[in-house]
Amino acid sequence: MTRKLIAILRGLKPDEALGITEALIEAGITAIEVPLNSPQPLDSIEKMSKAFGSDALIGAGTVLSEKDVAEVAQAGGELIVSPNCDATVIAATKAAGLQSFPGVFTATECFAALTAGADGLKIFPASIMGPAGVSALKAVLPRSVPVYAVGGAGADNFSQWRAAGADGFGIGTALYAPGLTAKEVGERARKLVSAYDEVMA
């Protein structure tokens, strides 16, 4: 089962990248982003892609420029996630053959992202929009477009987001924070996966 869960590993260090990634995959999370404002993010992405690229979709978050996209692609990443909707970044992502998940908040941004070629939409910050806002957007968006709630979504409220029409979730501090061991991240991941399966299956 390929779950629509993206692990956001902000603050991950290269020396812990492989252990954390292995723990996530074993728990059932197979889409993983390393935000580019983490320590040496490209080193982590390269290690993760080489070791687990056939088992998981590895990439970067907080991607803000075409240069960022090129560097992530060179490191072996296949997923580009941004906090904003930038048509040039989306176009560069698709030209490089990578998957694009830009951050959006309004209907205008949603459709601009889709016009630029985005593969899916990251509602951010979802905690501010709330399920009611997601429901309103889903009413006008193409049904084929996956919409991920990011920022405020977690095991305790997956059902609310699902009822609003969210297709998936990006999970950050509820899953990983600097200082956590691979074992601790794995335990958190298993709980999230269990909650996700109960609501989304």
TrEMBL record:
It comes from Pelagibacterium flavum. Pathway: Carbohydrate acid metabolism. This is 2-dehydro-3-deoxy-6-phosphogalactonate aldolase. Pfam families: Aldolase. It comes from the Bacteria. PANTHER family: 2-DEHYDRO-3-DEOXY-6-PHOSPHOGALACTONATE ALDOLASE-RELATED, 2-KETO-3-DEOXY-6-PHOSPHOGLUCONATE ALDOLASE. Belongs to the KHG/KDPG aldolase family. Keywords: Carbohydrate metabolism, Lyase. Homotrimer.
